[in-house]
Design a protein that fits this description.
By secondary structure, this protein is of the alpha/beta class. It is built from 16 helices and 19 strands.
């Protein structure tokens, strides 16, 4: 059977594209190498606890805000168990050096919450909040304004370094650190993160911040159900290995089983570098291949999932970011609540810190379930270091742990296929914005890209990217009007 659209990879970007195009009457076939769709939307169950692997919190989900508009369009409202974070402190930035903490509030409270600690900086904070909003409004699929389409580079935001911008407007170094305190959400690359990416993440959270209170697979399940209801096909346990390309046009995708799936259009939700491995030399422009293959990827993440002893750790309805007090790893970590509170206490939490893939080189050719004692020792040592750092703010935290589970970028690589287990895919370098940005179109006329590598990562970033990808087939104004409702 030949399909209108064949989508390779069922991560969030692929599922959103399948949803959009299925609604528009396209026959959709989605190919997924794992046992079920979802990519990093998948979660892991350990005892009575469910730990989400990729989605922890999201912004702009209040009614009238942009992610709410996307969720409404995608049919996700009411189907996903989310909880609004504390509006007086959705993020809390802590410092191990002196124990000080600074809450970041939503809405107009954002400026007020910081001005209490930095009264002389109120005017600058107001300018900063207005700038983030203005930057986001320059994005066509954020503003849902087709007049902005194709104008991402008309303003310098994508070529402006967020760290340099913060230093230029704020003299207080502590306040600079607070405003970049959530940089684990974009890879902690202070000299390469653009003001555009920084603003998209931070402004969306200050509008309203929400965490996954339930299983993040609710998102993938709801989207997959919608695709099937529209007549789409989702094929799991099939690895796409090779494109059949004739005269610059893709004709089919060949699976590891030898099956061929023909299509009129193709969308890859797989990392661009992995996608290129499926295309023979000579079937795509050499310069395009060289550019994509030369791209640097963002760092991976070491994750410590913790099941807590009963009534030991007070529940905190915020995301906590911590600057370590010394130069040892981790220099910073984030802690997210897991599940719901019970009598005012947390049942589980997840701690995340950046991890250099170089530490994992001895095991780079191994797979999940086939790694030696040395790897287990490394994970155990990293977990101890992370717990020690957490005890700077939460004394006795280690004694509150009932069970713990760890994962490294190798685990993420094995399940998602992302090179080196990169958490956020291709690193978009503000110093080289044109050469490091990945766009939907490729050198093959009917092959498009989507997912966190296209434009931006995160739930909102991938939603914007999926809309941009599908607009190549549907038209920007048409799709924007549909999303606006």
């Amino acid at each position: 059977m030949k399909y209108d659209v064949v989508i390779i990879g069922s991560g969030l970007g692929g599922l959103l594209c399948g949803t959009i195009l299925g609604r528009e009457g396209y026959s959709v076939c989605m190919v997924e190498k794992n046992a079920k769709p979802g990519g990093c939307l998948q979660s892991m169950r350990r005892g009575k606890h469910v730990f989400n692997t990729g989605i922890h919190y999201m912004g702009s989900l209040d009614k009238g805000q942009i992610l709410h508009q996307y969720f409404k369009y995608f049919g996700l409202l009411g189907k996903v168990d989310v909880q609004r974070l504390d509006e007086n402190g959705f993020d809390v930035i802590g410092f191990g050096s002196d124990g000080a903490t600074y809450p970041l509030a939503m809405g107009t409270g954002f400026v007020d919450s910081l001005a209490k600690h930095f009264p002389d900086e109120r005017h600058v904070l107001e300018q900063h909040a207005a700038k983030m909003k203005d930057v986001c409004r320059s994005l066509p699929f954020y503003a849902l304004d087709d007049k902005l389409y194709g104008a991402v580079f008309d303003k310098p935001y994508i070529g402006t370094c967020a760290d340099q911008y913060l230093r230029s407007i704020i003299g207080n170094t502590r306040l600079q650190k607070i405003l970049s305190g959530n940089d684990p959400m974009y890879g902690t690359i202070s000299d390469k993160t653009s003001l555009l990416l920084y603003s998209l993440i931070n402004h969306s959270f200050t509008e309203s911040a929400w965490r996954m209170a339930g299983d993040s697979e609710q998102i993938s399940n709801a989207l997959a159900d919608g695709i099937r209801a529209a007549g789409g096909t989702i094929i799991c346990r099939r690895t796409a290995e090779r494109f059949v390309v004739e005269k610059g046009t893709a004709k089919a995708i060949v699976l590891h089983t030898g099956e061929e799936i023909e299509g009129t259009q193709f969308i890859s939700n797989v990392h661009p570098q992995v996608t290129l491995r499926m295309i023979a030399e000579g079937d795509i422009r050499k310069l395009y291949r060289m550019r994509i293959e030369s791209l640097q990827n963002s760092s991976g993440i070491f994750v410590l999932h913790v099941a807590l002893k009963e009534r030991t750790f007070p529940f905190c309805n915020h995301i906590y970011y911590h600057y370590n007090r010394d130069n040892t790893w981790p220099s910073k970590f984030m802690m997210t609540p897991v599940g719901n509170e019970r009598d005012g206490y947390a049942q589980a939490v997840s701690l995340l810190a950046n991890m250099d893939f170089a530490e994992l080189k001895p095991w780079e050719h191994t797979t999940v379930g086939h790694r030696d004692a040395g790897y287990q020792e490394l994970k155990s040592r990293k977990a101890s270091q992370l717990i020690e750092a957490a005890e700077q703010h939460f004394p006795g935290f280690g004694q509150m742990i009932a069970r713990q589970y760890t994962s490294t970028p190798l685990s993420y690589r094995d399940y998602t296929g992302t090179p080196e287990g990169s958490a956020y895919g291709v690193l978009k370098d503000c110093n080289h914005p044109l050469s490091t940005m990945v766009f939907p179109r490729t050198g093959i006329s009917n092959l498009l890209l989507t997912g966190q590598n296209v434009y931006f990562h995160g739930v909102l970033g991938v939603s914007i990217g999926a809309a941009a990808t599908c607009s190549e087939l549907l038209g920007a104004k048409y799709l924007m009007d549909k999303i606006k409702g």
